[in-house]
Amino acid sequence: MLPSDGAVMADLQRDHVFISYSxxxxxxRDRLLPFLKPWERAGGxxxxxxxxxxxGALWRRDIQRALDRTxxxxxxISQDFLASEFIxxxxxxxxxxxxxxxxxxxxxxxxxSAYLRQPLPQARLLDFEWVRPLESPLDLLxxxxxxxxxxxxxxxxxxAAGLNGDGRPDGLTEGxxxxxxxxxxxxxxxxxxxxxxxxxxxx
Length: 203
Hints:
The structure is a single chain. The protein is α/β, with parallel strands linked by helices. The chain is built from 6 helices and 6 strands. The protein has helices spanning 5-11, 27-41, 59-68, 79-83, 85-100, 143-160, and strands at 16-20, 46-48, 70-77, 105-110, 176-178, 185-187. The strands form 2 sheets. Strands 2-1-3-4 form a 4-stranded parallel sheet, sandwiched between helices. Strands 5-6 form a two-stranded antiparallel ribbon. Helix 2 packs across helix 6 (143-160) and helix 3 runs parallel beside helix 5. The longest helix is centred in the last third of the chain and has 18 residues, at 143-160. Mean pLDDT is 75; it is low at 1-11, 52-56, 165-169 and 171-203.
């Protein structure tokens, strides 16, 4: 007897760090990935960006599968990000739904200047704490400041993924995530944002 769709979903392990970005500015994705790769190699989580889709693959299916396993959603926000139809209609609703259910964390990273105001649907992101102020995106920093900011952002992502001090993930039950090195877990409430607990200082 085949399991129901609900049973399949319940068995899915949320172990992905899903990076959502605009294809118009992939530079920040490429600069962030090296900071996360050592943790992925240690088995802490799976970093996923659509560059990992193999040629000829069913890309919409692969993206949806990755979204269904998202533990941490990282949004690299720019004006092109806000203008992307696929991001706004597919990726962003899926990540926000997981956050609302207490199944995932959300990390907003402004990478370049963007006009984000009500009544745009994406303006809901303003309800969350950001790792940097929207008015102080990464591309306004000097090169050394950018490297320092990316290091701290990676620390936020690793903490959001619930890794303990030895690089192994803390236990994650439905709707729970480990927090930092403290060895404790907390229930994620609807709308809970990572930055409310962990904030990357402005450079």
